[in-house]
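Table S2 (continued). Query chain:
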Amino acid sequence: MEESVSLLAALHSVAFNSETPDQLNWGEKKSGKFLVKATFKLLGPQNAITDHWPWKLIWKIKLPPKISCFSWTALHGVCLTQDNLTRRKFQMATRCYMCMKEAETQNHLFLQCQIAADLWSMFLAHFDLTWVMPQNIKDVVISWSCWKVDSTIKRIWKMIPATIFWSIWNERNRRCFDGISTTYQSLKANCLMFLYSWVYLSPLDSPDSFLNFVSSLTLN
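Corresponding output:
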């Protein structure tokens, strides 16, 4: 009832000009044009969730499309790790292929496994940073995006989480399906080479350029 009264009061204050032709206007914009973005903002509570979801760190950086898509699946927790396969009624052991100690979950594989922790520590050491690792992938990505870094390194900085996720997933699948394990040092080098190729949009061309790139990973 109150809403009806408010509507009638609002209509009563509107002055109509009979000589002006009728036209459709979107009331939320001064231009009168309808915009999907403006409509989405009117949805209310859902918008608050979207604002806090780290989608920009995935889709707003220039990564190969398959890397962006994979990072998105990791954030949503739907990578086909053993815990997710078990939920789909697959019968299997759930031991992590990387450390061979703990059960394989997404948070363990990408964050808590010792091999994953070593990759995160490698980048933190390059930037001379200390960091308390959050407990899940979404919090990690959000926390990573909150670091204030110089504009000269910002583009590379945003690529690092996806680089780590992809490197671990490649190595995990190699161990799972091919029975081949990469040494820790080679895995770290491969991770840095992925990052190099995505930054420069080309494969590694010389050892010197790679070493110069690694030495440039600093916040100073």
